[in-house]
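INTERNAL AUDIT FORM
Audit reference: QA-55
Scope: verify that the stored structure record matches its stored sequence.
Auditor: D.O.
Record contents follow.
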Amino acid sequence: MVTSSDTAPAPPALRPEPGPSDALPPIVPRRRVGRLLSAAAGLLFLAMAVHSVVRNDAFQWDVVGRYFTTAAVVDGLLLTLWLTAAVMVLGFLLGTPLAVMRLSANPVLRALAWGYVWIFRSTPLLVQLLFWFNIGALYPTLGLGVPFGPQFVTVQTVNLLGPTLTAVIGLTLHEAAYAAEVVRGGILSVDAGQTEAAQALGLSRSRTLRRIVVPQAMRSIVPTAGNMLIGTLKGTSIVSVLAVHDLLYSVQLVYNQTYQVIPLLMVATLWYVAVTTVLSAGQFYVERYYARGTSRALPPTPLQRLRGHLAAAGTRLRAATAADARPTIGGDR
């Protein structure tokens, strides 16, 4: 009788070695024909535009290079930058109290702030500048004294308001109306619970606004304020109608003598583009600074994004090289 102990164990089943047909199929990325075609069309139109600008002799690029850094143009650029900075600072210094007045519980202050914003947003900027330039026709003298009584100090308006000061006043009053709405929108974007929590801690209204509400509102204020800054930089060119020697007016003085209109306008355009690019880069970093408490990871800077793309390209290249060097499974033995 044959027992189980006398039975030889069965040999394990032999598994066939994997052949080339058993390897996993390669993953092929989806072909996006529309994306490739649109990218090719965009690059084609860009190349055509660049070619038309570079090869067009009417731009007179040699003249552009000759006048780009002349003393008259640089002086006009410096005045434009100074005028932009002064108007933005003074505009927000005036617009912030107006925004607080609009949010005040006092109906008189709220009505006065609303009326100011309504008037200066409803009137074109050029009309405002011309009005302030001709203010002497309405008020030949300005005085300080008792209402309906004697005047202690009087000054001639013609001697007081020159073209540059008129431009600063007109632009500041105009920008203050928009700055008030920007600040008011930023304050309203802060959750009401923040104010209630500050009141529960016994903080005053002014301290709550200064220490809690405004820092959180900056995240909403900065992008719009950056757009206002760039708009003000370009909007200062309108003061050329008052004979203020800004960048555009300086360029106009040159081409009125040389009759080289296009190249001189290109000089002004290139300077505006260069300054706007610098301001846009600064706006990005300011927005990134105030976004620290709103997201877990800050948005990458352009340099960090470039490093990430280079690292990803290097990883893909190393993976492709390793795949090519790997021996084929089930190949020749």
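Auditor finding: record pair retrieved intact. The chain has a mean pLDDT of 82.
Action required: none
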